[in-house]
Amino acid sequence: xxxxxxxxxxxxxxxxxxxxxxxxxxxxxxxxxxxxxxxxxxxxxxxxxxxxxxxxxxxxxxxxxxxxxxxxxxxxxxxxxxxxxx
Length: 86
Hints:
This protein is an all-alpha fold. Helices cover 80% and strands 0% of the residues. The chain has 2 helices and no strands.
């Protein structure tokens, strides 16, 4: 059981990391496009702000899943119905 749970959270960390890297690339791309004048300032500012919010949310989820995985692996934390991670 513990091995399956560990694998599940390892995969969640990997997916969260992929989402974060994609959101980060989108933020960088929007910032670069705005800086190079490829999009209008009003639209570009909105795009950068939206991409930054998406990046921040993705980072938060990555940090959350990494904390859960670290707790599980390092401390052998038992996930029960009262767990704050469920």
